[in-house]
TrEMBL record:
Group of enzyme by EC: transferase
UniProt protein name: N-acetyltransferase YafP
PROSITE patterns linked to this entry: GNAT
Keywords recorded for this protein, A-Z: Acyltransferase, Transferase
Span of domain N-acetyltransferase: 6-159
Molecular-function annotations in GO: acyltransferase activity, transferring groups other than amino-acyl groups
Gene giving rise to this polypeptide: yafP
Species of origin: Bradyrhizobium ivorense
Amino acid sequence: MSRSAPALRPYLPEDAPLLAAIFAASIMDLTGDDYSEAQQEAWAQAAEDEAAFGKKLAGQLTLIATLQGSPVGFASLKGTDQIDMLYVHPSAVGQGVGAALCEALEKIAGARGAKKLKVDASDTALDFFRKRGYVPQQRNTVTVGDEWLANTTMQKTLDAVAPSPPGGHA
């Protein structure tokens, strides 16, 4: 059975409740090997205020990945050079959703002049970003609610979009 590639579209304000649900499901179902239940709950609480969550997504360049027209993941670019969020619903993991979102943000960042793209990757996402060419820079500890969570700042050097030589000759 051939799977269709995820389609990407821009974030719309009415997507906030569904993306909040994807965010929470992704954290609660996928990060249990790396974070305690208390850490997961504190992290997932970031989406409980859907209005604030939606405002954050609207304030960044946010893309939504869909499979058969249904949103299954999202990613956001903060400024020109930082992936702020990249979350995929547990039911869609392994279907190229995260890769499609990450690749799109890399292309957008490069087109906007970024030379490098950074991400603060959760321990769960380290291998995903490592396979995409991101290199660990430093370990961080962030406070979320009453919990401390570790993550790793990773960075990828983006391929420079070579300008065409003058006169059109290579």
